[in-house]
Write a structure and sequence with these properties.
Blueprint (H helix, E strand, L loop, with lengths): L8 E6 L10 E4 L15 H6 L7 H5 L6 E5 L9 E4 L8 E2 L1 E4 L6 E9 L4 E5 L2 E2 L8 E14 L17 H4 L5 E4 L1 H4 L8 E6 L10 E8 L7 E4 H6 L7 H4 L5 E8 L7 E4 L8 E7 L6 E9 L4 E4 L1 E4 L2 E5 L7 E8 L2 E6 L14 E3 L6
Parallel strand pairs: 10-14, 11-13
Antiparallel strand pairs: 1-2, 1-3, 4-6, 5-9, 7-8, 7-10, 10-15, 11-14, 12-13, 12-15, 16-17, 16-24, 17-21, 18-19, 18-22, 20-21, 22-23
């Protein structure tokens, strides 16, 4: 579906001090090619821009190939990402898009479109028989970081995680869980997020990586992820290579936000809840791509929505909750888009019990 994923931005500077400026030039990658051991074949305008003054540009161009230094930078377009429908597209049969105004400091690795009829995200590069109607676009960007692991007797997560999941935090996602650094934990908003994490050691690690769910907060020496040992081992190219991965302790990784693609959202009543005076809940089985920012419950007697507060991690609570069947609406943030999703049916039944889990009619990406 995406025609080009090239829009990387590089600051290029020529090393010829007599001819070239210290400022260099900022270029956008739009093509693929190489010459005489070159990393860049610049446009004439970009090549001339390397010169110290416009009058020196002809002398620089006469050299043909020059030594340079470069680094990845942001273009800072200042606007939103744009999507262009490619001229080869044909409505209802074939869709190809080009992503424009990408910031350039990160890579676009995948694009998904949302089909409202099936309520599913479709992961594609180009798409035959695309869904009709208005659509949403989801772009996953990849970031560089480091990952390590914490030791548990069974290789899974910990029941004392900062998200408040308890035993659920050990076994959710088949035990492929992680503690996230403060920037990803986001004061609990990042709880339940799913990331695809891939180790960069080509000799030991697979290209597929591992999909982990955030159930805790923590960071080590420059790490964004402290994984369960099951998850850390899953990055290995082959199970037999996992024992060689563990001695490294910390590995370089790249990661991107993804969905774990669960079914309907579930609500667990926290064990500390008291039917007569206190309600605390956890959201389970949300997809992990969108953040849950807040939630409100509906009081049928007063016809009002009552906000719950984030107590800590993924736990929301409310003193003196209303009696009766309760509907719920949840504020989510998906990418830069914030919206409310609402249950049509009862989310929490009257006479709920601490420790019980109730399935809703809501799905969170």
């Amino acid at each position: 579906m995406m025609k080009s994923a090239f829009e990387k931005i590089n600051k290029v500077r020529c090393k010829n001090n007599a001819l070239c400026s210290e400022e260099g030039t900022k270029v956008v990658v739009t093509d693929s090619a190489d010459g005489q051991e070159t990393d860049f074949i610049l446009s004439f305008k970009a090549y001339a821009k390397l010169a110290k003054t416009p009058s020196l540009a002809p002398h620089l161009c006469g050299k043909g190939v020059v030594d340079i230094e470069y680094r990845r930078v942001s273009c800072r377009y200042g606007g939103n990402l744009m999507v262009k429908i490619h001229e080869h597209s044909k409505y209802s049969e074939y869709l190809t898009i080009v992503v424009l105004n990408q910031d350039g400091v990160t890579d676009i690795h995948a694009v998904e479109v949302y089909e409202e009829e099936s309520q599913q995200w479709i992961s594609v590069w180009d798409l035959s028989s695309p869904p009709c109607g208005e659509g949403e676009l989801k772009v996953s960007e990849t970031y560089d970081s480091k990952a390590t692991y914490y030791k548990t007797s069974d290789g899974k997560g910990t029941p004392s995680g900062a998200c408040g999941y308890g035993e659920y935090g050990r076994y959710v996602n088949d035990g492929l869980v992680t503690a996230a650094s403060w920037k990803l934990y986001k004061n609990g908003v990042g709880c339940g997020a799913c990331y695809e994490v891939r180790c960069k050691d080509k000799a030991l690690c697979s290209d597929k990586g591992v999909k982990v769910k955030v159930t805790d907060s923590g960071e080590g020496p420059g790490t964004d992820f402290i994984m369960s040992s099951d998850a850390f081992a899953k990055m290995a190219k082959h199970p037999k290579l996992a024992h060689m991965l563990f001695p490294k302790g910390v590995v370089d990784v790249d990661y991107k936000r993804v969905s774990c693609k669960y079914g309907n959202l579930k609500i667990k009543i926290n064990e500390h809840s008291n039917y007569h005076g206190y309600l605390a809940i956890l959201f389970l089985d949300h997809g992990g791509y969108a953040d849950i920012l807040g939630c409100e419950i509906y009081n049928e007697k007063t016809y009002k929505w009552i906000p719950m507060r984030r107590s800590y991690g993924a736990v929301f609570d409310l003193a003196n909750p209303p009696k009766g069947n309760l509907k719920m609406k949840i504020q989510i943030k998906e990418g830069e888009k914030t919206k409310w999703v609402q249950s049509d049916k009862t989310a929490i039944p009257d006479y709920w019990k601490p420790g019980n889990t109730y399935e809703t009619d809501v799905q969170i990406p």
